[in-house]
Amino acid sequence: MDSPEENQQTQERLIGDLRLVIENAEELLKNTDQYTSVLYRSARAKLALALNAATEELARFEDEQLGRMIEATRTANAENADLSGEARIMRAFH
Questions:
Q1: What is the DSSP string of 53-66?
Q2: pTM for the full model?
Q3: Which of 78, 77, 72 shows the shortest CA–CA distance to 90?
Q4: Spatial contact of 76 and 91, defined as CB atoms under 8 Å apart
Q5: What is the DSSP letter of 55?
Q6: Nearest alpha carbon to residue 12 among 62, 84, 86
Q7: Cβ-contact 2, 10 below 8 angstroms
């Protein structure tokens, strides 16, 4: 079973990979807009739909990751009695 750190690294790697795929797909759409045949238009439409879905999924992944980070920081603040704003900010970066 993966440790929480390995799981987090895997998730971060997947998010990074998804960002790269999205960037490449956007670039491909930009670079093929001059092709107007039915085949190209159909392929571009499918790619645009997939790109939309991937972008929405990425946003969901990032929101979930941010939520986990916020909750982990809250838990650490409570466990370590970080009462000042400075202590909480410092904890967030450790």
A1: HHHHHHHHHHHHHH
A2: 0.70
A3: 77
A4: yes
A5: H
A6: 62
A7: yes
The pair of structure tokens assigned to 72 is 């982990």
Nearest one of 23, 19, 27 to 44, comparing CA atoms? 27
Amino acid 35 reads Y
Nearest to 73 by CA among 53, 54, 93: 93
Q: How far apart are CA 47 and CA 24, in angstroms?
A: 11
Structure tokens at 80: 């370590």
> Which two three-digit tokens encode residue 27?
């670039």
Do residues 73 and 92 make contact, with C-beta atoms less than 8 angstroms apart? yes
CA–CA distances in Å: residue 76 to residues 25, 28, 49, 70: 39, 44, 41, 10
pLDDT tens for each residue of 18-34: 999 999 999 999 999 89
Q: 54-72: per-residue pLDDT in tens?
A: 999 999 999 998 998 888 8
